[in-house]
Amino acid sequence: MRFSITTLGCKVNSYESNYYKEQLEKHGHQLVESTDPCDVCIINTCTVTNTAAAKSRQKIHSLKKSHPNALIVVVGCYVQHANQTERENLDVDLIIGANHKNELVQRIEELLKEHVRKDLVEDIRNFTSFEEMPIHVYESKHRAFLKIEDGCNQFCSYCAIPYARGRQRSLSKEKVIEIAQSLSDKGHYEIVLTGIHTGRYQDGDTTLAKLLKELLEKTNERVQYRISSIEITEVDDELIELMKQTTRICHHLHIPIQSGCNETLQRMNR
């Protein structure tokens, strides 16, 4: 089976698309460009804003038109946030929202056999546990990404992410360390910790700073860590002190700032 993956939106979507690629190739399927003939077109969608949702719809319709004989699989934030009528109007073969993503290969293989259209979108309030999607090796031998968190509790006035990905949930500390060790063993010496709200990582009493401390202790001393993005309110003294003590945590923080105006920030619920 030949498949293509089209990814819209954030770095977490890119991470998840890499996971789909790795899993499909493990099952003997072949990745091709979205412009090439293929049996399955996968569209990993975004809905953080109305513009992002519109781009997702446009891409779905475009790929349906250019690949009339392919099965169309739509996954991710846009279809999770869309209502049932909107999803039905897409007229696609398989829809997976914010849950069951780690079943994508199984669901596609079922679709190839049964040719029965399915919509697997569930109520976002049901998602309370972190869905593991580990990537074991990257084509870039140096840098790897490790998704440690998903969801958001912020409910900014302009953003649909809490409704599309659900509330905050984190990968267990033990699993993070296990995956980091595996990536290190395969020669990846820069690991980027990523998530929708990475700075809100929490596993019991383990915060992001405490997780980083354990990662430094339990992985090869050649491995460096980078934080993909973090809110300014989550950069605490413990994290700053840890970064000062070691060069193994990259001395760089990507901090989003929507406005310098307090009144505007209040309207944004920032």
Write structural notes for this entry.
The protein starts with a strand and ends with a helix. It folds into 2 domains: 2-122, Rossmann fold (3-Layer(aba) Sandwich); 143-245, 2-Layer Sandwich (Transcription Regulator spoIIAA). The strands form 3 sheets. The chain has a 6-stranded parallel β-sheet, sandwiched between helices. It has a 4-stranded mixed β-sheet with strand order 8-7-9-12. Helix 7 packs across helix 8. The protein is 37% helix and 18% strand. The radius of gyration is 19 Å and the shape is globular. A hairpin with a 2-residue loop joins strand 10 and strand 11 (206-207). The model has no long low-confidence stretch (mean pLDDT 95). The protein contains 10 helices and 12 strands. With 270 residues, it is of the alpha/beta class.
Quick structural gist:
The chain has two domains: 2-122, Methylthiotransferase, N-terminal domain (Rossmann fold), CATH 3.40.50; 143-245, 2-Layer Sandwich (Transcription Regulator spoIIAA), CATH 3.30.750.210.
* Overall geometric form: globular
**Low-confidence segments, ≥5 residues, pLDDT <50?**
none
Tell me the span between the first and last alpha carbons: 46 Å
Total beta-strand segments: 12
Proportion of residues in β-strands: 15-25%
Q: For the residues shown, what is the average pLDDT? A: 95
Number of domains: 2
| Most strands sheet | 6 strands, parallel
Q: Assign the CATH architecture of the largest domain.
A: 3-Layer(aba) Sandwich
**Residue share in helix:** 25-40%
